[in-house]
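Worked example 2:
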Amino acid sequence: MKKLPIILYILVFLILSCTKSNDKGNLQTLKVYENIDKQKRSFLMDQMAGYKEIIKLETTDSSLISNVNIKFTTLQYICLLDNNMIFFFDQTGKFKLKINSKGEGPNEYNSISNVVYNSIDSTFYIHDMFKKKMLEYQLNGRYLGEITIDNIGSITDLDNNFYVVSYSPYANKSKLVGILDHSFNIVNEFIGTNFNNENYADRGYILINDFIQSNHTKCIKPISSDTIYKIYPNKVQPYFFIEKGRLAIPIEILSDVSQNNKFKNYITNDYGLIINNLYFMTFYYNNKLYQDIWDIETSKLLYRNIASSVNDKYGAPIHLNDEIINVWPIFVDSQSVYCKIDERDQLLLKTNIEENDILLKIKVEK
């Protein structure tokens, strides 16, 4: 591994902007660059929402959360990652346990790169890319053991029998994606690449391919392409294409920390979630935060919110308790979407403002 600040690795999961690509073929194309400065606010989140539930994450001395980063959910639990610690809350928001095992010793992690749920055994893994380890725990926090696993940049569960990984930029792999069985053996590899991160690593950023959350099929958007792919155990399939035109950032700028003053001229930090046939896309351009909702099947922009200050509206509107508040998805599983309710809307809803965040859980209508 090259000598790079750890904080830059943490940032990399948000740095997923891509270069222009010629592999879009006949895919549905989301033309993000068109009318880039024009807002569109005709979409209500109610259009996809069924049952809605407020979840207040319990605040205790052991459960203070600075940032809600949901890694996985079960019928009973919500698993969060914050400051290299794992927190478990039940689905009502009651705090259950915390795992804080950072260190250099045995049974400890240097940093948490990924958290992966094992639905067959009802356990989960903490992936430490730097120590090349997968540490396994029961859902009650009991440590079970570790597995050595190299060349992994990001990993997530694919279905009950498989995991999918994106390889580390230093793995010298000709493919971007690997399918692993339940014992972490490679069974398939997909998406050829000639991208060499070594050309850019000494400039300051490690570029990692991360996965897109979806309530149906796992997806990925490689760094070297703006094509989103569906991932299956036996194949990958191009899904749709994000067209950025002249606003697509060249990878030599994206990977160079000394050129970050140029980032504002391009679409950067773009990431998204897929809910049914909708793509919820967040990105930055010209020092402004953009939140788009696209219909993947029609390539139509349904909603765009642009925020240039903390006082601007954030998210998309939804009815809740006879009020209209604004929320944005932060996590999606096969049945539900989780959003964070900000303090302004907590006041509007007349809920007690907690030290920890308050979530809105939305049952998705398919």
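The chain has one domain: 6-364. Residues 28 and 300 are 10 Å apart (CA to CA).
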